[in-house]
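TA notes, week 10

Several of you asked for a full example with nothing omitted. So below is the full record: structure tokens for the whole chain, then the designed sequence directly under it. When grading your own attempts, check the secondary structure regions first.
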């Protein structure tokens, strides 16, 4: 009798655990995923039922529904450090920037709008930033991810003349503006996952 109870409890536990790992299914029509010519279309939906976009994007995509709801809030709530941004404006204008993010990722939803707000203050056009959205597994689009060491998102990479100056990974250490300044000024800066 005791063995039967244990088997029932184990079986119920397994059912509960596996159901938490399954992707939510929804009976409503699946939204179209935005894709560019350079990237394939992926039929992925996040936990909120919003399409996960994958590939090279424009900032304007994040400013439209369904992403607008979090983009606008994070953009508005980010307090700007005008002194720091003014001090790095010229250096920033000469730097190539690549942002890897996930529309499904809360850290990306917080940090990327704040990053664009800081760029706006410095007068840096969004077209200067290569924005790449990726899957939750960080495995697609493979041709854009490979050789970039993307383990966490967002990852914001700063380069000059083909050489990486540094990167902000997942969240800023001091603030998005101060982290950028440390990287661009060549100061000692390590993101939270940097190897010692």
């Amino acid at each position: 009798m005791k063995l039967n109870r244990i088997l029932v409890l184990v079986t119920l536990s397994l059912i509960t655990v596996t159901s938490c790992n399954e992707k939510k299914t929804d009976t409503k029509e699946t939204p179209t995923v935005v894709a560019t010519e350079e990237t394939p279309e992926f039929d992925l939906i996040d936990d909120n039922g919003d399409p996960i976009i994958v590939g090279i994007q424009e900032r304007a995509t994040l400013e439209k529904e369904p992403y607008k709801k979090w983009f606008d809030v994070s953009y508005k709530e980010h307090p700007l450090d005008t002194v720091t941004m003014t001090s790095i404006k010229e250096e920033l204008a000469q730097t190539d920037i690549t942002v890897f993010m996930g529309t499904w990722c809360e850290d990306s939803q917080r940090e990327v709008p704040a990053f664009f707000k800081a760029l706006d203050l410095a007068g840096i056009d969004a077209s200067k930033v290569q924005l790449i959205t990726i899957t939750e597994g960080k495995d697609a689009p493979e041709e854009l991810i490979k050789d970039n060491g993307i383990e966490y998102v967002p990852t914001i990479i700063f380069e000059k003349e083909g050489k990486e100056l540094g990167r902000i990974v997942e969240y800023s250490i001091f603030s998005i503006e101060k982290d950028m300044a440390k990287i661009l000024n060549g100061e000692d800066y390590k993101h939270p996952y940097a190897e010692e």
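Residues 67 and 103 are 7 Å apart (CA to CA). Use that as a sanity check on your answer.
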